[in-house]
Amino acid sequence: MKYIAFDSNNPQALLQIAECAVPAITPTQVLVKVSAFGVNRADLLQRAGHYPPPPGESEILGLEVCGTLVSIGSDVSGWQPDERVCAIIAGGGYAEYVAIEASHLLRVPANLTDAEAAGLAEVYLTAFQTLHTIAGLQRGQKALIHAGASGVGLAAIQLCRLWGVETAVTASSADKLAVCEAQGASVLINYTLQDYVSELKQHWPDGVNAVLDMVAGDYVNRNLNIMAMDGTVVYLAMMGGRFAEKLDMAKLLAKRITITGSTLRNRSVAYKADLVAAFSKACLPAFSTRELSVVIDGVYMVTDINACHEAIQRNATKGKLVVRWQ
Question: φ, ψ for residue 19 (rounded to 5)?
Fold first, then answer.
């Protein structure tokens, strides 16, 4: 099969199309012929040597795919060849074929294109895990979504809208904020021009119940200033730096704030299976009714994979970037 190769000794080297063997499947897995795959910032981190796959997983880039079932493991039931599926994976998505645990599959709603389905799993399962499983958001509460125009950010905004949760977002430009507003965000903050702490204190003096943060750095202390009692801050990345100085423990204790970090890639097979099952039941039908959607910023052919990575590197995206094999 063909796959997209990178030079682990030279992160600046261009991605190249190469060939390797089709992966073998275990009794609990299926083999998927990939029609399209989503591209995530984590792929760039792995390419740079900062985010290796969990032990035993494919070294090939790629954390989410859409495609059709080719073969099915002996212990797998409920799936048939040629069904359209999408899924999260721990690696191997930038390839023509990928082996996936059957318990991690999502059935693609008939009204979704392959490109939309390819960009669904990683961002929506991450946002669902963050806001529902970890933060436990309830109808009528409030959330702050940093990097609101990112794929995860836009998925989080839509989930909050579905659940009756008000959202504030931060983003770096007016056009990114406009995309957030179109998905349901009600408080729009341009962090290059405005201080999000003072803005939120004006809009929501009682604070927010949950924060989804990919920035970290000096945001760690600043987030404490806008939290409601018993609020939860969930960190998914650290684009603003890995260290937070002079954490204000008095505010954390007084408001009983929970600060937690989360990743999805290195979770157990069972954890991911439970997450996929919960999301499928609670949210997947909403894609058929268009209450939820995948915001696609660009679809590239596989021969343009380097241009796709460059767009993410420039922080120029408003939604998902997806790559098609054909």
Answer: -130, 145
Cα separation of 112 and 294, whole Å? 9
pLDDT of residue 245 exceeding 90:
no
Distance from C-alpha of 190 to C-alpha of 179, rounded to nearest angstrom: 13
Give me the phi and psi of 117, to 5 degrees please. -65, -35
How far is residue 105's CA from residue 102's CA, in Å, rounded to a whole number? 6
- Using a cut of 0.90, tell me whether the model's pTM lies above it: yes
User: Which residues touch 56 (CB under 8 Å, ≥6 apart)?
Assistant: none
Give the E-state strand segments of the chain in sequence order: 2-5, 16-19, 29-39, 64-72, 84-88, 97-101, 105-107, 142-145, 166-171, 187-190, 208-213, 227-235, 258-261, 296-301, 320-324
Task: Supply the pLDDT for residue 315.
Answer: 85
- 5: tokens are 């190769």
pLDDT at 283: 98
**Average of pLDDT values for 219-238?**
96
pLDDT band at 316 (very low <50, low <70, confident <90, very high): confident
CB atoms within 10 A of CB 306: 14
Q: How far is CA 189 from the centre of its chain?
A: 21
The pLDDT of residue 290: 96
- Other C-beta atoms closer than 10 Å to the C-beta of 292 total 20
The CA-atom distances, in angstroms, between 80 and each of 73, 83, 249, 260 are 11, 6, 54, 39
Has residue 217 got a pLDDT over 90?
A: yes
| pLDDT-above-90 percentage for the chain | 96
DSSP reduced 3-state for 259: strand
Q: Which H or E run includes 280?
A: helix 269-282
- Three-class SS string for 172-210? CCHHHHHHHHHHCCCEEEECCCCCHHHHHHHHCCCCEEE
SS3 sequence of 69-87: EEEECCCCCCCCCCCEEEE
